[in-house]
Amino acid sequence: MLAKRIVPCLDVKDGKVVKGVNFRNLRDIGDPVEHGAFYSSAGADELVYLDITATNEKRKLLAGLVRRIAETISIPFTVGGGIIEIDDAVVLLDAGADKISVNSAALVDPGLIDRIAALYGSQFIVLAIDAKEERGVWKVYAGGGTRPTGRELFSWAREVQERGAGEILFTSMNHDGTKKGYACKTLAALSDILSIPLIASGGAGRKEHFAEVFTKGNADAALAASVFHYREIEIDELKKELHEKNIPVRL
Q1: SS (H, E, C) the chain
Q2: What is the tens place of the pLDDT at every residue in 4-13?
Q3: Would you give the distance in Å from CA 117 to the centre of its chain?
Q4: Most buried one in 65, 96, 147, 221, CB count within 10 A?
């Protein structure tokens, strides 16, 4: 069995790491390069950097920031936000990103997934899905969780896999920042229909939540932000506890 991955997420706005609850009330909590250096030495398996306002504000990620990150850390990292065409992906790859994350642009132009996969391979593409459960139906949102799209979570997940996405990063907007646990039931249902890795996001608050998302949710990786940023959970201690519960992790 492949090792489960622990993935800190750094939401970036105006060059600073920010955190909120349910995608609102964002607070500045520091420098993205410094945070990355800490996690690289603290036992994280990968990092995800998401520029959460790049799409809405019609601007590109700064390649300079990606280069600084690549020069500082020694673990793989994914970068997303404002990627609307293949040239954007090329810039990030050349700057040192290991993978790119696409969200809103793929909802507007699903063929973007096919084109990137055809040129660079599925392993380069993480398809991010932000969804909210509304009256029993999981609805997909764009623009950092600000715009309803009319798409349904499971059908969209199937489509992006067929188009060539290498991984899916699913964030439950209902659980984001609440620290009450991941959407394990929904994650398990997604895992059942997917053959590509599934990254869980939204709701981590205690070490037990990570064990649950790997067992009950059947996720391949668990992404979290505030519990790591505020040192509420130390990654090395988390991994030791998961190992003791016979959950495969890299120690």
Answers
A1: CCCEEEEEEEEEECCEEEEEECCEEEEEEECHHHHHHHHHHHCCCCEEEEECCCCCCCCCCCHHHHHHHHHHCCCCEEEECCCCCHHHHHHHHHHCCCEEEECHHHHHCCHHHHHHHHHHCHHHEEEEEEEEEECCEEEEEECCCCEEEEEEHHHHHHHHHHHCCCEEEEEECCCCCCCCCCCHHHHHHHHHHCCCCEEEECCCCCHHHHHHHHHCCCCCEEEECHHHHCCCCCHHHHHHHHHHCCCCECC
A2: 999 999 988 8
A3: 19
A4: 221
Residues in the chain: 251
Give the whole-angstrom CA distance, residue 36 versus residue 229. 11
Output the six-digit token pair for 144. Answer: 């950092």
**Poorest-pLDDT segment among 56-70, 171-185, 186-200:** 56-70
> Taking 80 as the threshold, does the pLDDT of residue 209 lie above it?
yes
Cβ atoms of 66 and 58 closer than 8 Å: no
Pairing of strands 221-224, 198-201: parallel
Kindly state the percentage of the chain with pLDDT values over 90. 73
End-to-end C-alpha distance for the chain, whole angstroms: 15
Cβ-based neighbours of 213, under 8 Å, separated by 6 or more: 181, 182, 184, 187, 200, 204, 219, 222
Instruction: Show the tokens assigned to 168.
Output: 């899916």
Phi, psi of 16 (to 5 degrees): -120, 150
List active site positions: 11, 130
At residue 54, the pLDDT reads 61
Burial class (CB in 10 A: 0-12, 13-18, 19+), 135: exposed
